[in-house]
Amino acid sequence: MATVNVLQLFAQAALEVNGKKLEGLTRETVISKLGLDSVAVMELVSFLEEKLNIRMPDEDLAKVQTLGDLGEVVKRLVPAGTDVTV
Amino acid sequence: MTSTQEEVEIGYDISNEFFRLWLDERMHYTSAVFDEAHTTLEQAQRNKSRWLADFAEITPKSLVMDIGCGWGANLEYLVLERKVERAHGITLSRSQADEITKRQLPGVTMWVSDYKDFTPPEKYDALVSIEMIDHLVSPAQQQQGLAIPIYREYFNKTAKWVKPGACFGFQAILRDRVPRKREDLADLKFTADVIFPGGLNPRLEELVAAAGQSWEIIQLNTRRVDYGKTTAEWLRRFRLNKEKIMASGWGSKLMSNGETVWNNYDRYLATCVKAFDNHWSSDVQMKLRLKD
Fold first, then answer.
1. CB neighbours (10 Å) of residue B148?
2. What is the number of structural domains in chain A?
C-alpha cells in the first residue's frame, strides 16, 4: 500500500521549492502563519499535486487554513488504497 | 479589514485624466456586456448599465442607490438615458467624487462614505452595485474564513436600505481557477499588491451563500468573456497613449512617476486579459429580489 505523509511532503516542498526549512509542523499549523506569501503557497500546492498526481479543486483550496485541512483534501483525491497521514 | 480609503485611493486616484485615456467616455471601470448589437466599448458599457437597470426594475420614478459609484458612469446612464429623477451614489474615492460633482448630473446626490457608515435618508426602490464588493474582503480575512460572513453582512445591511419587493442589479468580479505557474501567480499577486491593495475577488459560491439570507437570486449571468473583451480594449487604448503616460507627472502612493505608472498598468491590464482568458477570473451579474 502506498503511503503519503502530508506534513513531511509539505516540509519537503518548502525546502525544494522555496528553500525554506519548516520545523514542528502539525495538523493544526495555520498555513498563512508560516511566513510564506501566496505565490509560495501555491507553488507548494503545485509541488504536492505533481508528486501525488492529483489536482486539488480551487473551491476546496479556498477553504484550506491548516495543514490538517490540506491533508483532508489530499485524502479525498488520492487513489483508493493510499494511506494518507497528517 | 475592508479596503481602507487609502487603499481605494491607490487604485483610483492616479489622475482622472489618466483613466480617461483608456476607459470609455463615461469612465466605466467595470466589465461591459458585448453582444451583436453592442460591439464597441462605449455601446457595451451602456449595455451593461441597461442589464443592471433592468435587473433592478428601475423606472423614472425609482429612487435608486448606486453602491460604489466610481466616476458616476452608471449614475449618468440612469439619469440621462433611463430618465431616473433621483439617483444616489456612494464612493470612497475623493477624486471620483470630484469628477461626479463636475458632471453636474441632474437628480444625482453623492456621498464620500463607506457603505458600513452610510445611513440612507429614505428607503430605496432599487439598488445597483458594480464590482464594489471586490473591495470588501482582504486576502488575510479570506484565509481566516471570514469571507462569507463579511459578504453576508453587506447583503443583509443593504437589504435594510430598500422598500419591500425591491430589486438589486448586482455585479462582481470573481476569482476562479488558481494558476500554478510561478510567473502567472506573481502577475496576479502584483495586481493584488500594487494596483488594488486590500481587496480580493469573491468566489461565486461565496456570494451565493452570502446573499441568500436577505435576497433571492432571480437570475445570474456570468460575464467572463465580456470582461476579457473589455480589458483587451482597455489595454489597446492604453498602449496607444504610451508616450503621453510616460511623460506625465502622474503617480500615486505606490507609483512615483509616469514611467512607473506605464509599466505597472501595462502589466496589470495584460494580466487581466490573461486572467479572463484562462478562467483565473470571471465576472457575474445577478438580479436579486428582497426576501420579504
1. 18
2. 1
Q: Taking a C-beta distance cutoff of 8 angstroms, is the pair B16, B97 a contact?
A: no
**Which domain covers residue A68, as residue numbers?**
3-79
Which structural domains are found in chain B, ordered by start? 5-290 (3.40.50.150)
Who contacts B183 (Cβ-Cβ below 8 Å, separation ≥6)? none
- Per cent of chain B over pLDDT 70 is 95
A55 to chain B, closest Cα gap in Å: 10
Residues of B in contact with A18 (CB under 8 A): none
Minimum distance, in Å, between the CA of residue A39 and any CA atom of chain B: 6
> Does residue A40 sit within a domain?
yes
* Pairing mode of beta strands B281-290, B63-67: unpaired
**Model ipTM value:** 0.75
Q: What is the pLDDT of residue A36?
A: 87
Interval A22-81: pLDDT, tens: 999 999 999 988 988 888 889 999 999 999 999 999 889 988 999 999 999 999 999 988
CATH number at residue A64: 1.10.1200.10
Nearest to B86 by CA among B59, B63, B67: B63
Pick from A31, A43, A59: which is nearest to B205 by CB?
A59
Residue B76: name the closest of B101, B44, B59 by CA.
Answer: B101
